[in-house]
Amino acid sequence: MKQFVIPELGENIQSATIVKVLIKPGDVVQQDQSVLELETDKATIEVPSDVSGKVVEVKVNEGDQVEIGQLVFTVDADGAAATVPEEKKEVQPAPVVETPAPAETPAPAAAPVTAPVIEEQVAAPVPAAPVVNPPAAGPKVIPVENQPPILQNAAPAAPSVRRLAREIGVDVNQVKGTGPGGRILLDDVKLHSKLMHQQRNEVQHISAEQHQQPLPDFSKYGDVETVAMSNIRQKTAEHLSHAWHTIPHVTQFDKADITQLEEFRKSYAKTAEKFGVKLTVTAILVKIISSAMKTFPQFNASVDMQNKTIVYKKYFNIGIAVDTEFGLIVPVIKNADRMNIIEISKEINALAEKARNKKVGVADLQGGCFTITNLGGIGGTSFTPIVNSPEVAILGVSKGSIEPVYINGKFEPRLMLPLSLSYDHRIIDGADGIRFLRWVIEALENPMKLIIEG
Ligand code: CAO
């Protein structure tokens, strides 16, 4: 008889909620077959089995809150079809990750502030990939689509160091090794854990502050319904609160005259169709922003206040806020600077579709340097987006509309696109903010700029 227990699910994840149980007594399970759907505070993931055999007893139900290491089911390993094909032992399925997504933010001021959340936040780190460490067979990593499994770059560490990391909930792959050749030492793991706790306390402190004021009893005034926040919503709220509290935001507004660009977009529509895409202003902006970040490297940076350093990134990954029925998701276009606008359009379409079909993987949501949030397809004249920490700037796009513009002594109807650039004033000064935005606007108004300077 063998047992399947809840495996490790990633750094800082101690428990999860069972969304679906995919097996029942009498079923024959194979190793690597998905047996559970779990919702953690980071994502919804499918968990593969590390045992094979005939299911004898299932100890959990949908909706249960389960802990790492908790018994889920037992199998009779001698049961039918318990053998695992060789190739299956090596390749594990990519997890299906559902909408680990951010969402609209409660406006901190009168303005409708919205902002995306994602990865690498100091506050709520999303694990590099859902990691499943079956208790018996040592650490295993489920590869995420388009991303090599972490084990390919396994951190150099002795088994005792790995064991300590596992026991105290540290992802050893995230630890910076200070031993010979970058080897990870016990002290490195302890220091990493200490820093994680400090960061968590900081966030809890912020969250606690926000929850200090109890709500009044609304039922005194009429009918109410109270609904529990999902884990993802809680983390989203924490992340946005963290970004709002730690980043001194400034939002700079301006408008681009896109009359000419719109004519070009329309005239090029048929050609774009041949490539199977629709040429949109969002795709053009992705290209422009990735070029602007080369001219203004402080917009492609992150602030590390703990070490008093600024991290400048040499890659250009742009997150696009996508509105889905499950909430806001921000997939990331990797190396946008190396793509042409047709390729960027294809990538936006593919990622937006994946996001809307709940098929987006954690890797699709990570590694962003700058976010674009285009609400103009819906409407609005301006808004103040929240910087997607640890990024330092975000561009909000509102609805382009025809306006009278005074040119050469008379008013002319021009298509004007309102832009809102929010940035982190710790490392971006006001003058740099408007220089960046003007650069973007000039590139929209005169695409030759991209060819010459981009
Ligand atoms: N001004 C005027 N019209 C705009 C526009 C703008 N800023 N942006 C898009 N449009 C138009 C497009 O031209 C298109 O019109 P046609 O159908 O007539 O050609 C229509 O709106 C729909 O565009 P689209 O959504 O298909 O394409 P897109 O590349 O412009 O946008 C995406 C893609 C993913 C950004 C968008 O679908 C989306 O999800 N937007 C919402 C993002 C969001 O929720 N942000 C909030 C984040 S903070 O909470």
UniProtKB/TrEMBL annotation:
Q: Does the keyword Acetylation apply?
A: no
* Chain ranges of the Lipoyl-binding domain: 1-76
Q: What class of enzyme is it?
A: transferase
Ribonucleoprotein found in the keyword field? no
Q: Offer one example of a GO biological process linked to this entry.
A: pyruvate decarboxylation to acetyl-CoA
A single GO molecular function term of this UniProt record: dihydrolipoyllysine-residue acetyltransferase activity
Tell me which Pfam families the record gives. 2-oxoacid_dh, Biotin_lipoyl, E3_binding
Name the family. Belongs to the 2-oxoacid dehydrogenase family.
The identity of this protein, by name, is Dihydrolipoyllysine-residue acetyltransferase component of pyruvate dehydrogenase complex
Which organism does this sequence originate in? bioreactor metagenome
